[in-house]
């Protein structure tokens, strides 16, 4: 990331956790100085309506209170109506900022980390260490177990008071294929053994990663 010049043009993605800053339901577009972003660290992560999309680095809570100008942030989920490519771009920005925010210090020696120039990664500034790490991707599955016109739903412990029933889902464990994850998760949660015939679709971002 680099400091933003006053006249830098584009669309601006400001995040706060999984929330984003919108003006009348849309990303702010225009010059950096129009939104008090001069000097903030940012990087271009794609194109938005034909213009560069700039991801602005998240600030510490104290800095945000002093400099954020009372901005109100909205859940990323509010943008589910967008075309998938645009939503996934916003989601990518949120995930990048989360990665940078949670990897400011080296997990091996405790020194400060800095972004690398040649790829999306951070590297330890301690030359004796030099540890480099990358954004963590957590593949998961969600599966509909069907029998004829019936579908299996589960009432998980965390939703018992709400009486909420959902399809089964879970994260892929190290060394597993997606098919093995489906079979393990279904068996762990219901005691049912299932057979998978084919992967029907794969998706990123707002949609289930796999549809069976």
What does this structure look like?
The structure is a single chain. The protein is α+β, with helices and mostly antiparallel strands. Helices cover 18% and strands 27% of the residues. It has three domains: 2-101, Nucleoside Triphosphate Pyrophosphohydrolase (Alpha-Beta Complex); 104-136, no CATH class; 138-211, Nucleoside Triphosphate Pyrophosphohydrolase, CATH 3.90.79.10. The strands form five sheets. Strands 1, 2, 3, 4, 5, 6 and 7 form a seven-stranded mixed beta sheet that branches. Strands 8-9-10 form a three-stranded antiparallel beta sheet, with no helix packed on it. Strands 11-14 form a two-stranded antiparallel sheet. The chain is globular, with a radius of gyration of 21 Å.
Order of SSEs, N→C?
EEEEEEHEHEEEEEEEHEE
Number of helices: 3
Overall outline: globular
CATH topology of the largest domain: Nucleoside Triphosphate Pyrophosphohydrolase
Catalytic activity: a 5'-end NAD(+)-phospho-ribonucleoside in mRNA + H2O = a 5'-end phospho-adenosine-phospho-ribonucleoside in mRNA + beta-nicotinamide D-ribonucleotide + 2 H(+)
Enzyme class: hydrolase
EC number: 3.6.1.22
Keywords: Hydrolase, Magnesium, Metal-binding
